[in-house]
Amino acid sequence: MIGKKMQDALNDQITAEFYSAHLYLSMAAYFESIDLPGAAGWMRTQFQEEQVHAIKMVDYLIERDGRALIRGFDDPPTEWESVLDAFKAAYAHEQKVTALINGLVDVARAERDHAAEIFLQWFVNEQVEEEASVKAIIQQLKMVEGSGGGMFMIDRELGSRVFTPPASSAA
Fold first, then answer.
1. Fewest CB within 10 A of the end CB: N or C in the chain?
2. 92-95 contact pairs (CB < 8 A, 24+)
3. How many Å apart are CA 36 and CA 155, to the nearest integer?
4. Residue 90: which of 40, 56, 53 has the closest Cα?
5. What are the Cα distances from residue 19, in Å, to 7, 14, 33, 134?
6. Which of 83, 100, 72, 84 is nearest to 30 (CA)?
7. How many CB atoms lie within 10 A of CB 12?
8. Between the CA of residue 10 and those of 2, 22, 87, what are the distances in Å?
9. CATH H-level superfamily of 4-71+82-161
10. pLDDT in tens, 42-89
11. How far apart are CA 154 and CA 87, in angstroms?
12. What parts of the chain have a pLDDT lower than 70?
């Protein structure tokens, strides 16, 4: 059975993961509105990944005889100044999520919940990948700033991303 502190912390993170999903879906809608279907597709994939993260935590709580709580959250933003601004916001958000995941690991360690600490290592590794991915896009966007042709090429590249659920989440 999972302890109350760990359960509460994971429930807070479930809310954060669902917020992340909605933030990325909002970004996808923004990109569609400015005719960037590739960037929109990239964000839709991000939306799906964040949903998987939340469900993974829900399932973990259930497996540990805990209670998963699905709560509401504030509306995500719907407008950004530019494509670069949106990706900078995504990067800042991923850094915030990384801090939240690190906080979960701290709770697991303080509670001596070795199973939770092991479970959370997947998320620690995932955050390294998430931050690096968005940072690379930001660097590309900075290189082509002001170049319509460059943005066209980046958008096409972003559109090639396909959602692949983690092995443990595949149906």
1. C
2. 93/20, 93/23, 94/127, 94/130, 94/131, 94/134, 95/131
3. 6
4. 40
5. 18, 9, 21, 18
6. 83
7. 15
8. 10, 18, 27
9. Ferritin, core subunit, four-helix bundle (1.20.1260.10)
10. 999 999 999 999 999 999 999 999 999 999 999 999 999 999 999 999
11. 13
12. 168-171
Give every CB contact of residue 106 below 8 A, 6+ residues apart in sequence: none
Domain ranges of the chain: 4-71+82-161
Q: What is the pTM of this model?
A: 0.92
pLDDT in tens, 76-87: 999 999 999 999
* CA atoms of 18 and 47, how far apart (whole Å): 9
Report the distance separating Cα 167 and Cα 6, nearest Å.
Answer: 25
